């Protein structure tokens, strides 16, 4: 169980491994570690590299997102027993115990913080943490859109929204009195900080696809999701943010959960090289294209603000297409023969199993 008060994670000097952790699971762990590195490579495209050059630049990092960046907000008051992240192998490669991260070790945002010489960002719901060097508002299940959007369209039972982008922005607003004493002091801090907004959208599409809506119908949600992200960015700019990273979504047609649910009969439904579902990857591509268009609009509107797009899609696609370069087989990357590793309560992303996106 995780303590109800925040304890700064530390690297274990010795990690006890269960004897029954099989070879297949070890390969999965190794793959996840490599996935962290490759997604981190996307930040080079975003313009954050070399990070060492910016080490003296940022006073803090404020991060928003979903399970790809959740450092423990979902479990700050304890991990429910049904949550797979409550057990090893989660946390085993760095911390030595589960921290609430949907990873065997660190997250991309953790690497960024360390490269910038900043401490790992505490989850914003932590009870006894200091947030003067930044905070992580991301939470597993986070969406771009508020729950009301899904409820109005009959998706109340397929969305698990523990904190939308705009809910996380409310948490950010509520935190301000604890990190700065005046609006001027807040703006000064935020102008010297890095803001990471996302990725957002993966769970929005999961809610729609989980309701078995036609993909063509899901496409009609893309402008709403992207506009919501744009509004979130503008809220942060109004607070004083001048340096923001906005990641796109990953190629969801490569996710084992969708490959398992949406079994296609025609071979042409799959990418000939990747084995991923083409129309779902097209959905991701359209989202990212509209998001980049939105970012371009915001750059023109706010010329004094640097908004950097992080291309997760291309990085993960290269991982899938060239898995052998990373010591893995394409069948493992796309999940073939892996579904038995995931419990009935789990949603599989890439090769990791956990309760939700």
Automatic annotation (TrEMBL):
It comes from the Eukaryota. Pfam families: Lipase_GDSL. Keywords: Glycoprotein, Hydrolase, Membrane, Signal, Transmembrane, Transmembrane helix. The chain crosses the membrane at residues 37-55. InterPro entries: GDSL, SGNH_hydro_sf, SGNH_plant_lipase-like. One of its GO terms (molecular function) is hydrolase activity, acting on ester bonds. Belongs to the 'GDSL' lipolytic enzyme family. This is GDSL esterase/lipase.
């Amino acid at each position: 169980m995780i303590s109800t008060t925040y304890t700064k994670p530390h690297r274990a000097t010795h990690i006890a491994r269960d004897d029954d952790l099989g070879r297949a699971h070890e390969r999965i762990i190794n793959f996840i570690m490599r996935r962290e590195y490759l997604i981190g490579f996307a930040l080079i495209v975003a313009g954050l590299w070399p990070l060492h050059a910016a080490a003296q630049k940022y006073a803090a990092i404020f991060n928003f997102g979903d399970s790809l960046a959740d450092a423990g907000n979902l479990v700050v008051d304890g991990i429910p027993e049904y949550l797979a992240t409550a057990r090893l192998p989660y946390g085993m490669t760095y911390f030595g115990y589960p921290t609430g991260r949907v990873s065997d070790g660190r997250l991309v945002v953790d690497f960024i913080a360390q490269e910038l010489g900043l401490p790992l960002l505490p989850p914003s719901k932590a009870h006894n943490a200091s947030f003067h060097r930044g905070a992580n508002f991301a939470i597993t299940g986070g969406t771009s859109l508020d729950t009301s959007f899904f409820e109005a369209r009959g998706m109340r039972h397929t969305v698990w929204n523990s904190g939308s982008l705009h809910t996380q922005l409310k948490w950010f607003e509520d935190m301000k009195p604890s990190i700065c004493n005046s609006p001027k002091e807040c703006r000064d801090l935020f102008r010297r900080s890095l803001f990471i907004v996302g990725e957002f959208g993966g769970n929005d599409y999961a809610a729609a696809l989980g309701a078995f809506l036609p993909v063509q119908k899901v496409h009609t949600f893309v402008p709403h999701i992207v506009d919501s992200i744009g509004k979130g960015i503008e809220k942060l700019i109004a607070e004083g943010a001048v340096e923001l990273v906005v990641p796109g979504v990953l190629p969801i047609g490569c996710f084992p959960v969708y490959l398992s649910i949406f079994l296609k009969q025609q071979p042409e439904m799959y990418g000939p090289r990747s084995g991923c579902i083409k129309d779902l990857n097209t959905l991701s591509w359209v989202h990212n294209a509209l998001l980049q268009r939105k970012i371009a609009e915001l750059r023109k509107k706010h010329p004094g603000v640097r908004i950097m797009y992080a291309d997760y899609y291309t990085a993960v696609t290269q991982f899938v297409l060239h898995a052998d370069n990373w010591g893995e087989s394409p069948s493992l990357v796309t999940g073939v023969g892996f579904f038995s590793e995931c419990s009935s309560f789990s949603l599989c992303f890439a090769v990791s199993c956990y309760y939700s996106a």
